[in-house]
Design goal:
Elements: E1 6-8, E2 11-13, E3 17-19, H1 29-38, E4 41-45, H2 60-79, E5 83-87, H3 95-104, E6 109-112, H4 120-123, E7 130-135, H5 138-152, E8 159-162, E9 168-169, H6 174-179, H7 182-202, E10 209-212, H8 218-226, E11 231-234, H9 236-239, H10 248-256, E12 262-266, E13 272-276, H11 279-284, H12 310-319, H13 342-350
Parallel strand pairs: 3-11, 4-5, 5-6, 6-7, 7-8, 8-10, 10-11
Antiparallel strand pairs: 1-2, 9-13, 12-13
Helix pairs in contact: 1-2, 2-3, 5-7
Length: about 350
C-alpha cells in the first residue's frame, strides 16, 4: 500500500513512523538521530538521561536537565534536518522542568505518558514544539483532550496509542494485558481515533494518530495503517540496531530471548511492565534488590516500600549488566535475530 508521510502541523516526516522512547539510556541521540535521518521521527527518552555524568549520583535532576540539551544537540547533528522528539513521563519528578528544558533546546515534539499530561500545553506556550499525549483507551484520550480544550482552548498535535503488546510501563491492568485480543483492542483503537477526530474538527486541524505495541515487521505496519491510522510507533525492533545507544549485551539479550522469556513485571512506578526473564526478575520478587539510595526519578516511588530501585535496574540494563537488570521489551522482542542498521529497517518497512 502507498505510505503517506506523517504530517504534524508544519512538520513532515517522509515515512509514517515514530521510534518509541526507551529509557534509561536506550534511545538517546544515537538512535533518535539515525531514525530522524532515515525519514522517521526519532525520540530521545529523558528518563535519567544524565546517568553517565560523573555528578549524577549527587544531583540527578539538575544533571538530567543539563544533559537534555546536550543530547538534543548531538541528535541534531546526526539527523541532518530530520524530526526529533523527546519522551517525558508525566510521573517524572519535576516533570515541568524536563519539558521546559527540551523546549528551550528547540525540540520538535514532546510525547508524554505514564500519567495524564494535563499541563503540557502550558509548558510549550510561545514555542514551535508540538505536543502528543500517550493514551491506551478512548476514556483517557477524552479526559486529556477535554481538559486541554477546557483549560487551554487547544488540542493535541498528535496522539500516540500504546497497546497491550508494548514494552516498558503499560497503561493497563495486568488482567487486561493477559485477556485483550488484537481484535478487541482494534475496536478501542477506532474509538480513540473518533475521539481525536472530534477535537480535530472543533479546532479545524488534522490531528494524526499513531499506534505502537507489538509492531515488528512490514506486515504489522501495513495492517495498522490499513485501519486508518496515520502512522506507527516502533521501539523494540530498533534495540537490535548498530545505532541503538544500549550496550551490546542488552541487544544480545533480545536476540537470545525466546517467546516464553518475555514476562509481565510489577514496577515500583505502580504500573505493570513487560520485560525479559532473568536473574533480576526472579530475585526481585524475593526482596534481594532493596534500594540503597534515591535517584529522584518517579513521583510515586517510596524508597522505603519499593522492592527495588528502578533507576538502578535500568542503568544496569543500559550498561550491559543484563542479569541484574530490568530488561524492558515489547511482546515481539523475541523475534530479533540479528544486529542491523536503522536504514535496513526502513528499507524493509517502506521500500
Amino acid at each position: 500500500m502507498e505510505k503517506e508521510p506523517l504530517v504534524i502541523g508544519e512538520l513532515k516526516a517522509k515515512f509514517p513512523l515514530i521510534q518509541g522512547g526507551m529509557g534509561v539510556g536506550i534511545s538517546l541521540s544515537g538512535l533518535a538521530g539515525a531514525v530522524a535521518k532515515a525519514g522517521g521521527i526519532g525520540i530521545i527518552s529523558t528518563a535519567q538521561i544524565g546517568f553517565r555524568e560523573p555528578d549524577f549520583d549527587t544531583n540527578p535532576i539538575e544533571v538530567n536537565l543539563r544533559v537534555i540539551g546536550k543530547e538534543i544537540a548531538k541528535a541534531r547533528q546526526i539527523a541532518e534536518g530530520g524530526i526529533l522528539g523527546v519522551n517525558i513521563m508525566v510521573a517524572t519528578k519535576r516533570y515541568e522542568d524536563y519539558v521546559r528544558a527540551a523546549v528551550a533546546a528547540g525540540i520538535d515534539l514532546v510525547v508524554s505518558g505514564a500519567g495524564l499530561p494535563i499541563k503540557l500545553p502550558e509548558l510549550v506556550t510561545g514555542s514551535l514544539t508540538k505536543i502528543a499525549p500517550i493514551v491506551s483507551s478512548a476514556k483517557s484520550a477524552n479526559v486529556i483532550l477535554k481538559m486541554w480544550d477546557k483549560k487551554y482552548h487547544t488540542t493535541a498535535d498528535l496522539v500516540v496509542i500504546e497497546g497491550p503488546k508494548a514494552g516498558g510501563h503499560l497503561g493497563f491492568r495486568r488482567e487486561e494485558i493477559e485477556k485483550l485480543s488484537d481484535a478487541e483492542y482494534e475496536q478501542e483503537i477506532k474509538a480513540i481515533m473518533e475521539v481525536v477526530a472530534d477535537y480535530g474538527r472543533k479546532y479545524e486541524k488534522h490531528v494524526p494518530v499513531v499506534f505502537g505495541g507489538g509492531i515488528y515487521d512490514r506486515t504489522d505496519v501495513e495492517h495498522y495503517l490499513s485501519l486508518g491510522l496515520n502512522g506507527v510507533q516502533v521501539a523494540s525492533r530498533f534495540v537490535t540496531t548498530h545505532e541503538c545507544d544500549a550496550n551490546e549485551n542488552y541487544k544480545q539479550a533480545y536476540i537470545k530471548a525466546q517467546k516464553d522469556d518475555i514476562v509481565l513485571v510489577n514496577s515500583p512506578v505502580g504500573m505493570p511492565g513487560r520485560a525479559i526473564r532473568n536473574h533480576f526478575y526472579e530475585d526481585s520478587k524475593l526482596g534481594k534488590y532493596s534500594p540503597k539510595r534515591c535517584r529522584q526519578c518517579i513521583q510515586t516511588c517510596n524508597p522505603k516500600e519499593t522492592p527495588y530501585c528502578i533507576t538502578d535496574a535500568l542503568i544496569n540494563a543500559a550498561e550491559g549488566n543484563t542479569e541484574d537488570a530490568l530488561l524492558f521489551c515489547g511482546a515481539n522482542a523475541y523475534r530479533a535475530e540479528k544486529i542491523e542498521h536503522v536504514s535496513d529497517i526502513f528499507q524493509e518497512f517502506f521500500a
